[in-house]
Write a structure and sequence with these properties.
Blueprint lengths: L1 H27 L12 H29 L3
Length: about 70
Amino acid sequence: MIPLAIVLFLNAAFNAIVWPRFYTRVANDPRARDENGKATAFLRVHVVLISIALVLALVSVILGIAALTGAL
């Protein structure tokens, strides 16, 4: 179970480090907002994808802890 926990923690760390930085780049992209300043589909889709990645990071941490404690 320790190798599983390590993989889950690495996955969580990757998602928690990479995706928020990617959001900054997407939010600053000219395609993120229209001429009136409203969010475009480009921004909304990326926010959904980033949110899913961060939820998966949280799930990975929880499952990693469960693997280490023998709850799996």
